[in-house]
Amino acid sequence: MERKLRIAQFGCGKMSAYTMRYVYEKGGEIVAAFDMNPAVIGKDIGEIIGTGKKGVKVLPASEADATLGSIKPDACIVTTMSLMKDLNDPFMICAKNGINAISTCEEAFYPWNSSCKITEEIDDLAREKGCTICGAGYQDVFWGNLIATLAGATHTIKKIKGKSSYNVEDYGIALAQVHGAGLDLETFAEEIAAADDISDEERKALIEKGEFLPSYMWNVNGWLCDKLGLTVVSQTQKCIPQTHSEELHSTTLDMTIPAGHATGMSALVTTETKEGITVETECIGKVYAPDEFDCNDWIIYGEPDTQVMINRPATVELTCATIVNRIPDIINAPAGYVTTDRMPNNSYRIRPLNEYVS
């Protein structure tokens, strides 16, 4: 494509400061931006990015349908919530208008195993209108393609075990609340942990009704199994509260979390496959104590055993860079809801984004 890529931004919080800047620095341009927060609506996006004015003001989310239908950008970046039920409206608006969309929403990474009905509806409309919808971000590389690449260098695999942690302070209030940050342990047990104290049949029913609440690794395990050609026999998850011995202040929640209350949670997902390979993954999202930091640790057990450990990854920047680098892939992909295991491996974009669009 000879011209610059024209990109819309849906959700103008913390993540958008990076995604919008990265779009400009990769040779594209932001042509529209939307949010629901009155404190953000009306701002020039340059104020959010931290640059000079760009001449694009943040519009109310209610105007997204009409605006996107009028200007027809090449793609829309969605950085709002973490669950598919919360992304149904922006994804359907994009699909209705034939606009490619990519989101940092963790469930959107592989929603086929958690919100199949919503995903099928988006998929049908996207196919009809000729656009691509997907989710990507940090998990695309560090929980997905990195592990699949290591598997490709392994003769036999018995088990894949992964553990990753991140500071919920970096991602906004919606994510912190989903992790139960700030709750006392009794409330955490009732509102967070109890959701997984169910049978396989009950979980299946919730998924079919679109009421299941997956942890981030639930969708990652589905992605990995699909990528590696594994057949899932069973999958379970358990959410465990994380605590700290001293009180911690959360700027995102605007509260001080008392000692012994939940600072977040650990979600452990175990997948058994027909091929005999177990995938056991854990993600820990919480308000960090002063000495804590992000880490990503994976082990493939087999012949040979292989471990990769990454300390202090810049999770926010890596998430946003992955989203922007993926934009040519979603434009080039077939229509529908296409997860990134069906796309080329992530690539660094040394040239302007438009030069990678076929």
Automatic annotation (TrEMBL):
InterPro entries in UniProt: NAD(P)-bd_dom_sf
Protein name: Dihydrodipicolinate reductase
Record organism: Dethiosulfovibrio marinus
Lineage, top ranks: Bacteria, Thermotogati, Synergistota, Synergistia, Synergistales
